[in-house]
Amino acid sequence: MAAMSNVPVADRLLVGRMAEGEDYALGELYDRYGKTLYALALAIVREPADAEEVVVDAFGQAWRQAAAFDPERGSVGAWLATIARSRALDMVRARGRRARAHERAAHLSEDGIATPIAGLGPDPGRGAERSEARRLVAQALAALPEAQRVAIELAYFEGLSQSEIAERLAEPLGTIKTRMRTGMEKLRGLLSPLLEGAA
Amino acid sequence: MTTAHEWQDLAAPYALGALAPEERRTFEAHLAGCDVCRAAVRSFAEVAGLLAYGAPSAEPPAGLRDRVLAEARRVRPIAVPRRRLSAAWLAAAAALLLALGAGITAWRMSGRVRILQRQLAAADSSKAAEDSTLAMLTGPQVHVVSLAGTGRTPSARVFWNHTRGRFIVLAFDLPPAPAGRAYQLWAIAKGQAPMSMGTFNTDAAGRATVVLPVAREITVLGFVDNCGLTEEPAGGSPQPTETPRLLGAWVHTD
């Protein structure tokens, strides 16, 4: 009987509801970002059980700190990703990062960490937008010169500092700095369709 | 020592979390006073945020959502919610309803209860006293809004029972909408288009007691700022087609 409008609730309003203790809002944010954060956590920690723990911790932190979320500083998606990544890296560090990182070094130079485009299948279930985001990000990363992509991925997915990356790749620090900045500028251009939506 | 150009070189690695702790602290001190670098960091941080989508796709286990919610229910957010009716207030509301039912005036009740009395005074008909409605009005987690017209009448009161996911609408002195038309209620959250709460009509006496299910999109908000009433074609409109005839702010209670 009632005609219901179909306006998606803005992410930042959901964060506001979380700050008021509405767990509906947390559930809704999980539905929007849970899969992305889980994939991110898994890419960093590599163990499904650890990735689950990271996701629970990350949403728990977002829940507790929702009142401190500042939309001026970025989108809700970026905020959640930052929390999850930081939790995941903490976990890896706690396990002894260096030992694991060396194991992975060989993989990285070959395939990179990010998904090869050919590996992106259709996204099951909800989240067509996020599936589109995955496609665009994979494309953008693939469009970068390999050296720039590797520098950015080592920083983002492995949590290495610029100096550590320089050491790992046996390149001068200045070179790494340039690659990172140039690569990020290119990504910013390539991903502008997604970034405009976030503003 | 560090030139402006060198500072800007740090924005991308900073957003990626790739500065050594010492470097990061120095850069953060610089950021506090540099709009240009802050803007650069903000834009790179959005790019970094998107890198999360660069992780290989993985399906989270089915139970993960429940774990996330269970964990959250163990702790409250740091900012204490201020918009819930307090237990004391609900107890007072229940007491008042009982008092009304027994025909006892509520003269000596607190100021806050007198506010509630005003809101409910018109709801003293037997309709409002139906058990199921009463239960919904007095249950936990109930929000209320009073909608006032510009003139003396009409008026409406809407209760939002969060536990049962129902709006309870009481309307008074609201002439029935003509044939083919209906009244439609709107949940209005700041910064959002109005969301339909449902439609109803009043009887010949201008009264209505209606229970409407709360749409999911409103449920996830948990709270809206205002409530409006418009007259629309029967069945409702996707968006209001006139300025609200009645409008009220949902009560924020301490």
What does this 3D model show about the protein?
The complex is a heterodimer of chains A (199) and B (254). With 199 residues, chain A is an all-alpha fold. Chain A folds into two domains: 10-95, RNA polymerase sigma factor, region 2, helix turn helix motif (Rna Polymerase Sigma Factor, Chain: A, Orthogonal Bundle); 97-199, Arc Repressor Mutant, subunit A. Helix content of chain A is 73%, strand content 0%. In chain A, helix 7 packs across helix 9 (173-190). The longest helix of chain A has 23 residues, at 23-45. Chain A is globular and about 50 Å long. Chain A starts with 10 loop residues before the first helix and ends with a helix. Chain B is an alpha+beta fold and 254 residues long. Chain B folds into two domains: 4-58, Anti-sigma factor, zinc-finger domain (Arc Repressor Mutant, subunit A, Orthogonal Bundle); 120-249. Helices cover 35% and strands 21% of the residues of chain B. In chain B, the strands form two sheets. A four-stranded antiparallel β-sheet of chain B has the order 1-2-3-6, covered by helices on one side. In chain B, a hairpin with a 6-residue loop joins strand 4 (181-188) and strand 5. The longest helix of chain B has 16 residues, at 35-50. Chain B starts with a helix and ends in a 5-residue tail after the last strand. At the A-B interface, helix 1, helix 2, helix 3, helix 4 and helix 6 of A face helix 2, helix 4, helix 5, strand 5 and helix 9 of B.
